[in-house]
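Quick one: structure tokens for this chain, please?
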Amino acid sequence: ESPIPNTRGFRNDVVEALRRIHVPVIRWPGGCFADTYNWRDGIGPRDARPVRPNNNWAVTESNQVGTDEFFDLARQIGARTYLNINMGTGSPADMVDWLDYLTSPAGTTLADQRVANGHAPPYQIDYLGLGNESWGCGGSQTPEAYDARVRLFSSFVRLPAGQSTYRIAVGPDSEDYRWTEVIMGSAGSARMFGTIPLVDGISLHFYTFAGGSFLNKGASSGFGEDLWFGAIQQTMRLDTIITHHSEIMDRHDPQRRVGLMVDEWGAWYDSSTGRFEDLRQTNTLRDAMVAATGLLIFQNHAERVRMANIAQMVNVLQAMVITDGDGILLTPTYHVFDLFKDFQGATLLPVDVQGGRYTHNNQSIPALIAGAARLPDGRIKLALVNFDPHHGQEIVVPLPAGPINGEILTAPAIDSANSISQPDTVAPRGFSGFRRNSDGVSVRMPAKSIVVLTIG
């Protein structure tokens, strides 16, 4: 009933913005709430749905968005579905009933409820998450305890003939390498009836805290170079962390059947209100750097990383879109995902670009990160990120012949942000700072900038 144009309650402007960046998958209900969620609360007439406490974030949950609404949103956006099972307070029987509601043809009691609720065909669950952060808010379990539970739950994921899903076990928190060792050595290698794998992927959660720790996340706006450098330095740790987890996975799974799914990542800053549960934050040029760095690291580990879900999509943490009344703004993070969307479905091309060092307060990181891929139509995409807020970089890349088009994302200040009244302070613009020479293509990167070139 909102005066804001919508389709079955979802804002048309937000849905269209997300369609433009080709959102490939949405995870729900996700986060700590997943392991207290009762799926029955979110089906049927909305005016009859219960209101429950969400004590993870000191709010109430109205259940106005439930199972059918989630699948509707995924259809509107054109995204695949990643459903997160309650393995904390839920039981295997609860999961089996939810799967019955979702996937059974009409004729079972629960499938007939789905039909009555407006969706006759069974839903397709593309990915099934077996719990969330079971090492923390999902039950404070040891890897051995979780391993036993995931083997139990996964054994009862039995879908109707002709249906399948990709089962994702809870993986490590950042650098918890022992967790990966235990899960990959047991559930990650187990097969039911000797043939059916119990686990297809394991998750990895990693957040960028500009201040260096969960208790010191740093400000989301009005920050200085310390927190700019800190955020980038923290994000670059992902490369080492993924490398070490991949080495463990390779020992247990040399065929690389099991995927590493980074299904929570992104920047998380201190609340400006002082309330821990206040998760709305300003999105700045720094967040664009964090997003681009994360995407390039994941791409450069494509042999093992199969999925990466930034947290989160609208209005919370490192969001793509922020709304205010009937207004909408696209964040710097959104524009990075827009610039990088063609990398989806492309083939990794190794690239080694040397861009010097960026030094601050006697600490040093590479000034530049790069990634390249060949698109299905044969064109090449090259992405370059210059972290240094003071100095440009001139580099030479051995690129093939062909026309070149370039786009750049930068801004006047390290904490520049978009607003409803000034939506294009941080937005892509055309880039022409390149020229061909005998060694390839010379690119002049301005300070604090992200450049994407298309060749061919």
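The longest strand covers residues 259-267.
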